[in-house]
Design goal:
- The protein is α+β, with helices and mostly antiparallel strands and about 450 residues long.
- The protein folds into two domains: about 10-325, no CATH class; about 345-453, no CATH class.
- About 55% of the residues lie in helices and about 10% in strands.
- It is built from 20 helices and six strands.
- Strand 5 (about 405-415) and strand 6 (about 420) form a beta hairpin.
Length: about 450
């Protein structure tokens, strides 16, 4: 066992051409810049941070508050600039560290616009920080801020391959549930997009939903093995381009489809790519005439290896934690986030909050749309953490007026086209119950009906 571990460690430390790593860094930085800058230009920052009164941060991160006034525009502008520096490999590690911390605050600071891709971006930033991705094709190397080298240890690329494999594996596994196999969410999405130009009529053709259902399972499950096996590598690239561009057009999910296409680069050897780049004007500028053979010697060491072992152990275990909770995570939301349950369900509902004055017994009905943004009001009915936080917000508001109140939620939710049903126990004062750290939420009503394929 120890010999096998040592052999694996030696293999991971072997020098390989770093061209795929440094090229991916440039693409990655470009996408970071587009993500941050695009959030300003498309109005996402306005919708999520500027206009709403509340941001509903992740549990344990209630101290994260958006900057007042136009501060969040400046915040995202700084992130866009950091992404540009990463792309150019200029002050690479400092710029990426800035982006990672700022993006972490964005990710943990709000849940109304939760997206698995935002979580993946945070993980990739962390992994990129560990690598010498600015050792070539970079401003840092050109200006002598780092020693230029055409090599890196194999693990510098392998950690991204491992992370990508984990994401796709769990994404495929998560699709093996009754509603997906019955095409219920897919059917709803396609009907809602039938008006799209070009592909709209195809979306409502009966067989097309089954292509998405089983094509999604097969693509997520097979794309990494196909990329790893040389005879099928280019086929996998073609499928990846088609799959991600289709998702980009159909679901409008930001930069992730293009990140998914860029992942393919990491499965190719760097030497042919370097030879191709040398023939381009930009490549000739950045490639030294006699590139050195020095290996990145920053060294992971035992501490670095331990960090990676812990990191990937968490990545393997975290997506299956939802099995520890009773009920169905697509309904209860427990263990749903950070589990690569990507585009698997559609959930809608309504909620009215009942605020009862404990002194007089007077009841006041409050509609979330009166104080929340459209997106927040649309999602709060089926999100237990948002309902719990909102009940606390209402309790604090009334207590500021000198009233002691209880707050109840009359919530009805539909999952994947089912008839709507009660989501939380309407007799539980959500403003007084504590949020459990390691146990299940007892006030979520069980889903009464499951669809079988």
């Amino acid at each position: 066992m120890m010999k096998d571990t040592a052999r694996l460690r030696d293999w991971l430390e072997q020098p390989v051409d770093n061209t795929t790593l440094v090229t991916f860094r440039a693409i990655f930085g470009l996408l970071l810049m587009i993500e941050a800058g695009g959030s300003i230009l498309t109005g996402w920052v306005t919708e999520v941070y500027v206009e709403p009164q509340y941001t509903f941060p992740h549990m344990g991160f209630g101290w994260l508050k958006p900057l007042p006034g136009g501060g969040m525009y400046l915040y995202y502008a700084v992130m866009a600039a950091a992404g540009a520096f990463v792309m150019l490999g200029a002050y690479f590690r400092s710029a990426l560290a800035v982006f990672t911390v700022m993006w972490g605050c964005v990710y943990f600071g709000q849940t109304s616009s939760y997206n698995n891709h935002y979580y993946l971006l945070l993980l990739l930033c962390f992994l990129m920080l560990l690598t010498p991705a600015n050792a070539d094709f970079s401003w840092d190397a050109e200006k002598g801020r780092v020693a230029r080298t055409s090599l890196c240890p194999r693990w510098c690329i392998g950690i991204f391959v491992a992370q990508i494999a984990i994401v796709y594996f769990y994404a495929s596994l998560a699709k093996l549930y009754p509603d997906w196999l019955a095409a219920k969410p897919v059917e709803i999405w396609m009907r809602a997009r039938a008006h799209y130009p070009v592909l709209g009529p195809l979306y409502v053709v009966p067989w097309f939903k089954w292509l998405i259902v089983y094509g999604g399972i097969l693509f997520d499950g097979l794309v990494v093995p196909m990329l790893l096996w040389r005879p099928t590598r280019w086929v996998a690239v073609g499928l990846s381009v088609f799959f991600h561009l289709f998702n980009s057009y159909t679901f409008r999910i930001g930069i992730f489809p293009y990140m998914g296409i860029a992942f393919c680069l990491l499965f190719f050897p760097g030497t042919p790519l370097r030879a191709w780049l040398r023939r381009s004007r930009v490549g000739r500028y950045f490639c030294e005439q006699g590139h050195g053979r020095s290996v990145y010697s920053g060294g992971m060491g035992r501490l670095g290896h331990s960090v990676l072992v812990v990191f990937f152990a968490i990545q393997v275990v975290l997506p299956v934690r939802h099995f520890l909770y009773p009920g169905w995570s697509h309904w209860t939301e427990e263990g749903h986030r950070m589990s690569w349950h990507m585009m698997l369900r559609t959930k809608s509902g309504t909620v009215v909050m009942r605020v009862v004055d404990l002194a007089t017994g007077e009841t006041q009905r409050i509609y979330p749309s009166d104080s929340l943004s459209k997106k927040q009001a649309r999602r709060i009915a089926g999100r237990p953490d948002m309902l719990w936080r909102y009940s606390r917000i209402l309790r604090d508001r009334f207590e500021a007026e000198g009233k002691q109140v209880a707050v109840f939620a009359d919530s009805r939710v539909s999952l994947n086209g089912r008839p709507s049903q009660v989501f939380v126990d309407p007799q539980v004062d959500l403003s007084r119950v504590e949020w459990p750290c390691f146990t299940s939420l007892t006030w979520i009503e069980p889903l009464r009906e499951r669809i079988t394929p």
